[in-house]
Amino acid sequence: MDYTEKTVERKEIFNGRVIHVVVDTVELPDGSLASREMAFHPGGVGVIAVTEDRKVYMVRQFRKPYEAEILEVPAGKLEPGEDPLECGIRELEEETGLRAEKMTYLGASYVSPGFCSETIHLYLATGLSEVGQHLDDGEFLDVLTYDLDELYQMALNNEIMDAKTLIAILKAKGILGEQSSFATTAL
Fold first, then answer.
1. What average pLDDT values come out for the chain (187 residues) when binned by 10 residues?
2. Which of 38, 83, 87, 90 could form a disulfide with 45 if both were Cys (CB 3.0 to 4.6 A apart)?
């Protein structure tokens, strides 16, 4: 069966710097009408940066919607038309001061498909070298390192709540397995 919802009418609610909010009236497969509140977002990129000895660079920053400091992989919003790899390289350097020899694409995920169009692309960064942090204006965060196995356990214990970070940890752990070190190749 085709479950496509046909847009009958769109009402613009808000068009900001980060999100564009609309309310659509849609026709459902059975012919009835329903309302869909949606936020359109340009998407973003998260990077899990892992050293040869399995240390992972994380950031801790205050997130206003939750009124709390959140532990996350370095990440940022895609600019219009920006390549996700370039965004990942930029955000890793800005937030942690690191550059990677190799960026392995881990895939993309939908953040909250019930109402938001945001897609997060994830990368595994290896072969790390320090180049100097340069945060955006108004950006305040701490850079911390954790062992990959420790982060994996924190994820299982619900000590990490950020979805992109959970996915990145689980995928990195799956790729890197139990090995104690790994080879890197140039970008």
1. 96 96 98 98 98 98 97 96 97 97 97 96 98 89 97 97 98 82 45
2. 87
Residue 76's CB is within 10 A of a number of other CB atoms, namely 19
Q: Report the 10 Å Cβ neighbour count for 146.
A: 18
Helices in the chain by DSSP H: which ranges? Answer: 84-96, 148-156, 163-176
Q: What is the pTM of this model?
A: 0.91
3-state secondary structure (DSSP) of residue 71: strand
- Dist. CA 115–CA 17, nearest whole Å: 18
* Alpha carbon distance 158, 86 (integer Å): 31
> Could you tell me which residues are beta bridge partners of residue 61?
70
Total number of residues shown for the chain: 187
With contact defined as beta carbons under 8 Å apart, do 113 and 36 qualify?
A: no
